[in-house]
Design brief:
209 residues, two-stranded parallel sheet
């Protein structure tokens, strides 16, 4: 944007200088005066030449910059043009355009196993920010600090481990530490065999807290 404005200003200056020089040379011809150029006319021509050279240099720089940007854009386009392995999958209708073929295969496999986007779930932070969905009346209410402790029970069936981890993390983050006695995970006969790993994670996290 700055280069374009600079070119425009120099172009206008060039026209003005050229007009002045042209007029100064026409008058002597009509009056049949000496054909020798005056010092001020030579200086004007030199200034005009410098302006023309600078405009030409800027134009070349703009052209080179445009070529570089076109090459970079072409490389980015080629990089993002990845073959769609599952064009009919519901998972990739509005998501996953930037995934590689290997990532697509992993995401589709997890999608078929769990029925939702576990590939993305596995990459979300455990302590992500979640919206406050409480009724405004509840959020404004002041609760006493001296309350009985609680046990939180989570029942799950064939759930992705990352989902369970985030649920446990959210309970820990959102519950006052002096009120949270325990978190009990109940595996409702899952077939994916991840309960033991989840149980170890919860025990470690609670002990660490």
């Amino acid at each position: 944007m700055r280069i374009g404005a600079r070119v425009s200003v120099l172009f206008i200056i060039g026209i003005i200088v050229y007009s002045v020089v042209n007029v100064s040379f026409i008058r002597p011809e009509r009056n049949n005066d000496s054909t020798l150029q005056k010092p001020e006319e030579i200086e004007l021509f030199q200034r005009l030449k410098r302006i023309e050279d600078e405009v030409h240099e800027i134009a070349i720089n703009i052209k080179n910059q445009n070529v570089k940007e076109a090459v970079v854009k072409q490389k980015i386009t080629k990089k993002t043009e990845v073959k769609k392995l599952y064009p009919k999958s519901a998972l990739f209708k509005t998501w996953g355009a930037e995934l590689t073929e290997e990532e697509q295969m992993e995401a589709e496999k997890l999608f078929q196993e769990f029925g939702y986007n576990v590939f993305l779930s596995n990459r979300l932070p455990l302590n992500r920010t979640i919206p406050d969905t409480r009724d405004p009346r509840c959020s404004l209410k002041i609760y006493p600090k001296d309350l009985p402790t609680i046990s939180v029970i989570l029942i799950y069936l064939n759930e992705a481990l990352s989902v369970i981890k985030r649920a446990v993390q959210s309970i820990i983050d959102k519950t006052p530490a002096h009120l949270l006695k325990e978190i009990v995970l109940v595996d409702d006969n899952s077939s994916n065999g991840e309960f033991y790993t989840t149980w170890l994670y919860v025990m470690f996290h609670l002990c660490d807290s």
